[in-house]
Specification:
Blueprint: H1 2-19, E1 37-41, H2 52-66, E2 71-75, H3 84-95, E3 101-103, H4 109-115, E4 124-127, E5 137-142, H5 144-158, E6 163-168, H6 173-189, E7 194-199, H7 212-225, E8 229-233, H8 238-248, E9 251-256, H9 259-262, E10 271-277, H10 279-292, E11 298-302, E12 309-311, H11 322-333
Parallel strand pairs: 1-2, 1-3, 3-4, 4-5, 5-11, 6-7, 6-8, 8-9, 9-10
Antiparallel strand pairs: 10-12
Helix pairs in contact: 1-10, 2-10, 3-4, 5-6, 5-11, 7-8
InterPro entries: BMP_lipoprotein (IPR050957), PnrA-like (IPR003760)
Pfam family, one: Bmp
Organism: Microbispora maris
Length: about 350
């Protein structure tokens, strides 16, 4: 983690800030004094979802160990809550004096648009949302399409039927980036492959990320129809895909976290690999920059070159194809293979 942080917090963060039109003067956050009082607003599922939110929690835990005196207030979204609750949650953290405040997920964009301008001396960061901006907002972004390309390549190489699947938590632009990269990776390896795609809910409905039973039914239908590898990008619902894979004697691919380590032990052996998204690194980098008084507003993008996205080897299931995956990884990094985000 520290090796990645040394890169992102230095030249990369400054380069990205410069590209976004940010400079250390007008757009830099005001100096921080005293121990950090961090507000962390989780998305649905919160700490313990064994996926997206847990990756953010890992970054917070690492920061607690390394940044002296840091105090953290963690709050989570409730299933089915109205959008105004996120606004109220962020406002409550700001009014209580937490600074910085980290919003975990794009669903907090409306909240930051309303609250950040009202608290200009409070620093805000949001994960996976490029559209909200301001002199006190940092966008922590990832090249999910690049990591997902490798998942598609792995699926195509390990599939015996030439039939693979994708289960998305909803039909949002973020999930679309994973889907598009995955499809490109599959087709790069096997242009004739069949790709079955299901989204559990519509673009603004987050319940698809907390519906394991629904995900299990969707995956079961895919496996019965002939798919033998499914990539899930569905948060806590991914557990349902893993269960379906176990029953079908087929493969599933995890996301965000090395899920062969975090999922229920009963299903870990069917997790082919996981697309690791270093949310922990992004959160840690951001907090370290606040503590160092070097934080800037604007976009910071974590891609394959920076180690911000990658794949896991737990279980040894892709050892045989790792050399080819590494070759593709380098071709993406050096621009010889182009991966479109959508």
């Amino acid at each position: 983690m520290r090796a990645i942080r040394a890169v992102t917090a230095g030249a990369v963060a400054l380069a990205v800030a410069a590209a976004a039109g940010c400079r250390g003067g007008a757009d830099a956050a005001p100096p921080h004094t005293g121990p950090l009082r961090v507000g962390l607003a989780y998305d649905i599922g919160g700490r313990g979802d064994k996926s997206y939110n847990d990756a953010a929690a890992a970054g917070i835990d690492e920061a607690k160990r390394n940044l002296s005196g840091m105090r953290v207030k963690e709050v989570a979204a409730a299933r089915g809550e109205p959008a105004r609750r996120k606004v109220e949650r962020v406002r409550a953290l700001a009014e209580a004096g937490y600074d910085p405040i980290i919003a975990v997920g794009y669903s907090y964009a409306p909240a930051l648009r309303r609250i950040a301008p009202r608290f200009p001396r409070t620093r805000f960061a949001i994960l996976d949302e490029p559209s909200v901006s301001g002199p006190n907002i940092t966008n922590l972004l990832f090249a999910e399409e690049q990591g997902s390309f490798l998942m598609g390549a792995a699926a195509a190489m390990k599939s015996r039927t030439g039939d693979v699947g994708f289960v998305g938590g909803n039909r949002s632009p973020l999930v679309r980036k994973f889907e598009v990269g995955y499809v490109q990776g599959v087709k790069h390896v096997n242009p004739r492959a069949r790709i079955r795609i299901v989204h559990l809910t519509g673009p603004h409905d987050l319940r698809g990320f907390e519906s394991p039973a629904k995900a299990r039914r969707a995956a079961r239908r895919m496996y019965r129809a002939g798919a033998d590898v499914i990539y899930q990008v569905a948060g806590a619902s991914g557990a349902g895909v893993f269960r379906a894979a176990k029953c079908a004697g087929a493969w599933a691919i995890g996301v965000d976290y090395d899920q062969a380590k975090s999922a229920d032990p009963a299903v870990r052996d069917v997790i082919l690999t996981s697309m690791i998204k270093r949310i922990d690194v992004a959160v840690y980098d951001y907090l370290a920059d606040v503590a160092d008084r070097t934080v800037t507003s604007g976009r910071v993008v974590y891609d394959l070159k920076l180690g911000g996205v990658d794949y896991s080897l737990t279980g040894g299931h892709i050892t045989d194809i790792q050399p080819r995956l590494e070759q593709l990884k380098q071709e993406i990094i050096h621009g010889r293979v182009k991966v479109s985000p959508g």
